[in-house]
Design a protein that fits this description.
Layout lengths: L1 E2 L5 H9 E3 L16 E2 L5 E2 L14 E22 L2 E19 L1 E2 L5 E11 L2 E11 L8 E2 L13 E8 L4 E5 L4 E7 L4 E8 L5 E9 L6 E8 L12 E3 L2 H5 L8 E4 L3 E2 L9 E2 L2 E3 L4 E3 L2 E3 L9 E4 L4 E13 L4 E2 L2 E4 L2 E12 L2 E4 L2 E4 L2 E3 L2 E9 L1 E4 L9 E2 L5 E2 L8 E2 L6 E4 L8 E6 L4 E5 L5 E6 L5 E10 L2 E10 L18 E3 L2 H5 L8 E4 L3 E2 L7 E4 L2 E3 L4 E3 L2 E4 L7 E4 L2 E3 L2 E9 L3 E2 L2 E4 L3 E3 L2 E8 L6 E2 L2 E4 L4 E3 L2 E8 L3 E3 L2 E5 L6 E4 L2 E8 L4 E4 L2 E5 L6 E4 L2 E2 L2 E4 L9 E4 L2 E4 L7 E2 L2 E2 L2 E4 L1 E4 L2 E4 L2 E2 ...
Parallel strand pairs: 17-18, 18-21, 19-22, 20-24, 21-25, 22-25, 23-25, 24-27, 25-28, 26-29, 27-30, 28-31, 28-32, 29-33, 31-34, 32-42, 36-42, 43-44, 44-47, 45-48, 46-50, 47-51, 48-52, 49-52, 50-54, 51-55, 52-56, 53-57, 54-58, 55-59, 56-60, 57-61, 58-62, 59-63, 60-64, 61-65, 62-66, 63-67, 64-68, 64-69, ...
Antiparallel strand pairs: 1-6, 2-9, 3-5, 4-5, 5-6, 5-8, 6-7, 8-9, 10-11, 11-14, 12-15, 13-14, 15-16, 33-35, 37-40, 38-41, 39-40, 41-42, 94-95
Length: about 950
């Protein structure tokens, strides 16, 4: 048995000898999941066939197939046609492959014949009809009309038609690299070579070897190339006529090329390669090329020129490159020969930046970079900043910034001079930007400036350009009015004059007075372990700046950046956090007790080995009166604790105040392995007895949630895209929230809430009905299902909600628990009204009779005093494995089938408020205001 997709000479030859009787072309054969299929165009009668001549071992029938269960038994047979047949032959099939069975008999006459092959498999008979050719005996030679000239422009699928005789001649194809060739029979003698390039570069010999019986083989060669002229040799280089062919140079690095005309190219595909061939510009130019890779080293139009590389007679016009170190206009590193190259445009890097190359080991001669602007932070040059063992035949200017150049200046509270002396001494200093309330003036004839602070100057960045001809080095100096050694830049900690923080030490010093007011004035990178601030009751405004690399390892309850917050934390980006905890934890605050956390972003990883509770991406526990708003997380969370929330782990309520989570977004992933599965993309758990003691509104979760724990009691399971589970009915209403991720868990799974209460105006959007990545899937333990598109279990109302383009899938062992478009089960007075399911696949357990526990709206009737009413589903909603008829009652478990989905229908019939909703591109409603809407830049 052979792999179906492996290149095989015999498979190529059998395609030659037969013509399929099917109506589908091979390109139209698309695998259907889990369904056995015969690939007709890859099934064939093989070998040379001659009238009255005995068969050989090569005369077989090949069956090609897809989707055979491992170890499937089948029998292949064919009745006699023109003296040939297939005796019933048992075979074993598995997966996607081919199997050969021998032909029997002796061809009775020459001509073209059709064999009907039967494949008996599991009580089903499949038919495959194959046309085969029989040739006359005593043929003395193989003849072919295959054209043998060069074949140019093979950069797309190309076909070559020819005839071959004898008709059952076997063709063996040897294709050049990066090319596949298929032989198609078009008539008893007619053949087509279908040549498909598999990369951007095609060049080499296509060899066709024809064999028939004992005749001498016929070997024919066609030279292929993706270019319009040339063969890539030094004497006959490939001609480059347009950007498409110029881009292909990066895939054929050892050939010779010549520009046939000027070419406009948007960007170079050769920036990361080592070119070893020859590029002759022929006096022509390449224009408009832009390469933007600010963090990349060894960068240029080419990444590197090898010792054999030659680039000559070329103009790079309006070339614009941004890179890091070892940057050159032509090449990051040159080991070859560069002559008569002209470059104009702009080159920007950090160190070792040269107009031709950043690092030279080769030869540079007769080049012109007089109109090329070269900018870096140090060691920049007109040709190259480093010559090494190479040679230069042009004048080379190198601009070097001394290590004595200041990077920080303290105590600028009165006018003073700043010295920026550098080589060459003829260079000049130009001010690019100045901080607020600081003026500068040149000191005549020197490379110095006078700095004069004005009233209100505290600190800021001064950027200067050190220039010599077209070379310029940009340097930024941090200027402070404070003297060196002061922790804070300025301020007295009052509301009107907060302490200003610019360093990690100053940020750490906040713990010394947690009642004051603070502002962060620049990005801060932390090193080592961050020790959480025990409590914070003041205010800190990050002003959109980053706190990078916060690392916390703790076993203390309610730790985080701060342990307990009762103040205000806003406008901070915590980037690349790395937190490990064995106790209740929140990244920003372990507990937010009446405080406000606003416009805060967090990215990185959080790991909890705590086997009890709680973990939150922003806050561990949100107590009464606390507020989390306009926040954003992108976290990888791995936990062993029982309450895990993308933003908040647990919300607790008390009378007289409301805890709020609003206008926030959670992305990334949550993986939880615990005996309690209470997980929410936004909030994991709500506890207390105060109805409306908390609220979750206008939030968006797009993360992947996986619960792999071994929970055995269904009352400790609740996994939702927004909210995990509440303790009592109605304590945390959910409004205008949206989930677009995936959930895999055991029980009480909902797109919005695992176990919820009052849910209004909420939306769940999947990746498409029947998708291989279900929006909601029941797995793990106890694997009892209870899947609802909005809520697994709901305790109060579910009104004006939408589920669309989703897939819900029960586990194979799910035991009589509903899979429903809106809600699986109810508790207390739960019910669903005026809600809609569209374009969704509901897939129940395949274990009978569990497949019938699939419902378009609800798994059970609403509980008193509520009642299901006014619910609709689109006709595109499917209920796989369900054997009972789907109902058509707006108050029933399946809802009514919607005959229209216009905005008028949703407003007038279903009562949707279009100040909350709007019409999406699919015609269904979508929310207008869900998720983070802050003004911070991205993490």
């Amino acid at each position: 048995m052979k792999n179906l997709y492996k290149k095989s000479l015999s498979l190529l030859s059998l395609v030659l000898m037969v013509m399929t009787g099917c109506s589908k072309k091979e390109s139209e054969v698309k695998p259907i999941a889990d369904r056995f299929q015969i690939v007709d165009t890859k099934s064939a009668v093989n070998g040379n066939l001659v009238d009255g001549t005995a068969l050989t071992a090569s005369n077989t029938f090949t069956l090609a197939y897809l989707n055979a269960a491992p170890g499937t038994s089948a029998t292949i047979s064919a009745e006699a046609i023109n003296g040939l047949s297939i005796d019933p032959t048992p075979v074993t099939l598995s997966g996607n492959a081919t199997v050969d069975v021998p032909l029997k008999g002796i061809p009775a006459s020459d001509g073209t014949f059709t064999m009907t092959v039967k494949i008996d498999l599991g009580g089903t008979t499949y038919i495959c009809t194959k046309i085969f050719n029989v040739d006359l005996p005593n043929i003395t030679a193989i003849t072919s009309s295959l054209p043998l000239a060069k074949l140019f422009n093979v950069n797309v699928v190309t076909s070559v038609n020819f005839e071959i005789y004898p008709r059952s001649t076997v063709l063996t194809i040897t294709a050049p690299a990066n090319t596949t060739v298929e032989v198609i029979s078009t008539s008893p003698k007619g053949r087509t070579l279908k040549i498909t390039p598999t990369s951007q570069f095609t060049a080499g010999d296509l060899v066709v070897t024809s064999t028939f019986m004992a005749l001498p083989p016929l070997v024919q060669t066609i030279k292929l190339t993706a270019f319009s002229k040339g063969d890539g040799t030094a004497t006959t280089p490939f001609e480059l006529t347009d950007a498409d062919r110029l881009n292909r140079v990066a895939y054929g690095l050892n050939y010779s090329y010549i520009l046939a005309n000027d070419i406009t190219q948007a960007t170079s595909t050769a920036t990361g390669v080592v070119f070893a061939g020859t590029l002759d510009g022929n006096g022509k130019k390449i224009s408009g090329c832009t390469i933007n890779a600010a963090t990349t080293d060894k960068l240029g139009y080419f990444g590197e020129l090898s010792t054999s590389a030659v680039v000559k007679n070329l103009t790079l016009d309006n070339l614009n490159i941004t890179g890091q170190s070892n940057i050159g206009g032509l090449a990051g590193i040159n080991r070859g020969t560069v002559t008569n190259v002209i470059i104009n445009g702009n080159l920007t890097g950090t160190t070792f930046v040269g107009g031709i190359t950043g690092n030279n080991f080769g030869t540079i001669a007769s080049c012109d970079i007089s109109a090329f602007n070269v900018t870096g932070s140090n060691n920049i040059a007109s040709l190259t900043p480093t010559v090494n063992s190479g040679s230069l035949q042009n004048a080379n200017v190198i601009l070097v910034v001394p290590t004595t150049l200041p990077t920080t200046m303290y105590g600028v509270s009165t006018p003073q001079a700043a010295d920026f002396s550098f080589a060459p001494s003829t260079g000049t200093v130009t001010v690019v930007t100045t901080p607020a309330n600081l003026t500068t003036a040149p000191i005549g004839g020197t490379q110095k400036l006078t700095l004069t602070p004005l009233t209100g100057f505290i600190s800021g960045d001064l950027t200067v350009s050190l220039q010599s001809n077209k070379l310029s080095v940009l340097r930024t100096i941090k200027i402070f009015s404070k003297t060196q050694g002061s922790i804070f830049d300025a301020g007295d900690g009052s509301v009107g004059s907060p302490y200003l923080i610019s360093t990690a030490a100053a940020l750490d010093a906040v713990r010394n007075d947690v009642t004051k007011n603070y502002k962060i004035v620049n990005d801060i990178t932390l090193t080592g372990q961050w020790v959480p601030i025990p409590s914070f009751s003041g205010s800190i405004d990050g002003q959109g700046f980053k706190v990078n690399n916060m690392t916390i390892t703790t076993a203390i309850t309610n730790d985080g950046w701060v342990n307990t917050n009762t103040g205000t934390i806003k406008n901070i980006r915590f980037a690349n956090v790395n937190c490990n905890t064995s106790a209740p934890f929140g990244v920003v605050a372990g507990k937010n007790n009446g405080g406000t956390i606003q416009n805060v972003m967090v990215s990185g990883t959080v790991t909890s080995t705590n086997t009890v509770d709680v973990l939150g991406g922003i806050v561990g526990e949100l107590a009464a009166g606390g507020k989390v708003t306009q926040c954003y997380t992108n976290l990888t969370m791995v936990a062993s604790c029982g309450m895990v929330g993308g933003l908040v782990g647990r919300l607790t309520t008390s009378s007289g105040s409301t805890a709020e989570i609003s206008f926030s977004t959670a992305t990334g992933s949550i993986e939880e392995n615990a005996s309690k599965n209470r997980i929410g993309g936004i909030l994991a758990r709500a506890e207390g007895t105060v109805v409306g003691g908390g609220i979750v509104k206008n939030c968006l979760a797009t993360l992947s949630i996986t619960a792999t724990g071994t929970a055995t009691a269904v009352n400790v399971n609740g996994v939702g895209g927004i909210f995990g589970a509440d303790q009592n009915a109605g304590i945390v209403p959910i409004d205008q929230c949206m989930f677009t991720g995936t959930i895999s868990a055991g029980f009480s799974i909902g797109g919005i809430a695992g176990v919820g209460s009052s849910i209004t105006n909420c939306l769940v959007v999947g990746m498409g009905p029947g998708n291989a990545f279900p929006t909601l899937r029941s797995t793990g333990v106890p694997q009892t299902g209870n899947i609802g598109g909005i809520a697994g279990t709901n305790k109060v109302k579910l009104v004006n909600c939408v589920v669309k383009n989703a897939t819900f899938k029960a586990a194979a062992t799910t035991n009589l628990m509903p899979v429903a478009g809106m809600v699986s089960t109810y508790q207390n007075g739960g019910y669903t009204a005026n809600s809609f399911v569209g374009s969704t696949s509901l897939e129940g357990s395949p274990t009978p009779p569990n497949g019938d526990y699939i419902f378009r709206i609800a798994g059970t009737a609403g509980n008193s005093p509520g009642a299901n009413a006014g619910n609709y589903a689109a006709a595109s909603v499917t209920t796989a494995l369900r054997t009972t008829a789907v109902g058509n009652d707006a108050a029933g478990l399946d809802g009514a089938t919607a005959n229209t989905t216009t905005q008028t229908f949703f407003q007038s019939t279903m009562g949707f408020d279009y100040s909350i909703w709007k019409t999406d591109t699919d015609g269904y409603p979508t929310l207008q205001h869900a998720g983070y809407n802050g003004g911070l830049a991205t993490l």
